[in-house]
Specification:
Elements: H1 2-35, H2 41-46, H3 49-64, H4 66-71, H5 77-112, H6 117-148, H7 151-155, H8 157-162, H9 164-174, H10 176-191, E1 199-202, E2 205-212, E3 216-221, E4 226-230, H11 233-236, E5 240-241, E6 249-257, H12 263-276, E7 280-292, E8 297-305, H13 308-329, E9 337-340, E10 343-345, E11 351-353
Antiparallel strand pairs: 1-2, 1-5, 2-3, 3-4, 6-8, 7-8, 9-10, 10-11
């Protein structure tokens, strides 16, 4: 019985040390996060607690080997299993630390370039794609190191290297589409053609880029549907990016009015309304007669807004206000359907003398 006391005590000590170190590190990070609530890196570092405890426990078990002594196990099976857990824990911990480091870099960059939203969106996109690339590389390297701990894998390593050329050609042909999307994702991240937060138009569908991965983009449409587009689309086909250089946009409204419309008064009414509308950025506006038809004037009101969303809201509000203004002050300016010589149909469907 006394033979089991020492390995049991060792296991208990490893458990206590693992929990204590994990709790201590978490408490330190929690206090730092409370002092700096604006920093997003500390909550992410707190997510490293579980992989850190896995690494600590596996390292202590690997060095003391209490399980073999407790169960009187012979051979390296248990030792190898603990080694695999340690390698997997190190990979897991590295992924979490790298993600926190990239967030810390992005936070510092946001503080320095807060007045340049286009640059921030570009860096946000690049760090997002870089995080996924690094995580994938860490996962591949971790899996490779775990496989190399098996004797059988080391034995067949020479034959694998000898056939690597043929396998590479076959894999390249089989995964041509996936590899194309992968490199297209890198090109988008560092080529600055489209970024997270940009307003784009893809096949007549307008939306905001919500997420960029190595293989696809998620575009949130105006009605909150999500459009999934392969990244290869953005390097092989034309698309509209409304916010690539500046998020501001020109909104415009087209009205078909009667030839008797008092355009100067309508222009003054538009200006007065824009001065009270919070969606107008105060930079540009105009109201012009852009065309005429035998029965109407084509009047276009144009005004600038800070973002595409505000431009859409401004367009809706200006259209509603101008129509209401003409209805209340100049009802004759609204278009009427002429039904015959000397007569015309009003908006209520009746006929009045011309």
């Amino acid at each position: 019985m006394h033979v089991l006391v020492r390995p049991l005590a060792t296991l208990l000590g490893i458990l206590v040390v693992t929990l204590a170190l994990g709790w201590g590190v978490d408490q330190v990070l929690q206090r730092v996060a409370a002092r700096r609530p604006a920093d997003r890196v500390w909550p992410l570092l707190r997510r490293c607690r579980v992989p850190l405890q896995v690494v600590i426990a596996a390292g202590l078990l690997l060095g003391t080997r209490p399980i073999e002594r407790l169960f009187d196990l012979k051979g390296d099976g248990t030792h190898h299993a603990v080694l695999l857990v340690l390698i997997a824990g190190l990979g897991w911990l590295t992924v979490r630390v790298v993600a926190a480091g990239l967030v810390a870099f992005l936070s510092r960059y946001e503080g320095r370039w807060a007045e340049d939203p286009a640059r921030l969106r570009r860096v946000h996109t690049q760090t997002s794609v870089l995080r996924r690339v690094v995580s994938a590389l860490i996962a591949v390297v971790t899996a490779a190191v775990m496989l190399l701990t098996f004797d059988a894998m080391r034995t067949i390593g020479t034959s694998l290297l000898a056939s690597a050329g043929i396998l590479g050609i076959v894999a390249g042909i089989a995964a041509q589409s996936a590899l194309g999307n992968f490199f297209a994702g890198l090109q988008i991240a560092f080529g600055d053609t489209v970024r997270i937060g940009d307003t784009v138009v893809v096949d007549t569908q307008q939306g905001t880029v919500e997420e960029i991965t190595l293989t696809y983009l998620v575009i949130r449409l105006w009605d909150y549907r999500r459009l999934i587009v392969p990244v290869s689309y953005f390097v092989s086909k034309p698309f509209e990016n409304w916010t690539r250089r500046h998020p501001g946009l020109l909104a415009w409204v087209v009205l078909h009015l009667d030839h008797t419309t008092p355009v100067p008064e309508l222009r003054a009414a538009l200006h007065s309304f824009l001065e009270t509308d919070p969606h107008w950025d105060g930079e540009e506006w105009s109201l012009q007669v852009t065309d005429t038809t035998p029965s109407t004037l084509v009047v276009r009101a144009a005004m600038t807004a800070r973002t595409p969303d505000e431009a859409a809201l401004l367009r809706f509000e200006v259209r509603e206000h101008l129509v209401a203004y003409l209805r209340d002050t100049h009802p004759a300016a609204l278009p009427r359907l002429r039904t015959g010589e000397g007569t015309e149909a009003g908006e209520d469907g009746g006929k009045e003398s011309a």
